[in-house]
Amino acid sequence: MSLNPQQSYVYLAEDGSSQCFSADTFWQPANMERAGDGWLISEFAFTEDWLTWEMHPEGDEFVYLLSGAVELHLEQGDGVQAIALRGSGAVVVPRGVWHTAKVKEPSRMLHVTRGAGTQNRPA
């Protein structure tokens, strides 16, 4: 089965099974409940800075820049760490760390994270 990761999320369950969800409907409560505590894989295109900070309390997040240029900001105990990525590259955002992105060039990013409990706040 072929899918577009910008339009569908792939959910990898703890038991090794997978499900595909439309990006438009994934965040509905019934789908989130079915998704449980597994891993969520999603791709996003960005032309502007993120409007929110986010934090994943249930696991680290693998953020892979597929194209473009971004600066990821990670809020650490001693301040905000800026990590620049250009062209291609990846960052592992530790569990529980608030993070956001400043878009330097139109970008595509692939995210792998445990979606359960994700929190957001305004940037």
Automatic annotation (TrEMBL):
Q: Known Pfam families for this protein?
A: Cupin_3
Where the record annotates domain (S)-ureidoglycine aminohydrolase cupin, the positions are 53-107
Q: Write down the InterPro entries for this protein, in alphabetical order.
A: RmlC-like_jellyroll, RmlC_Cupin_sf, UGlyAH_Cupin_dom
Q: What is this protein called?
A: Cupin domain-containing protein
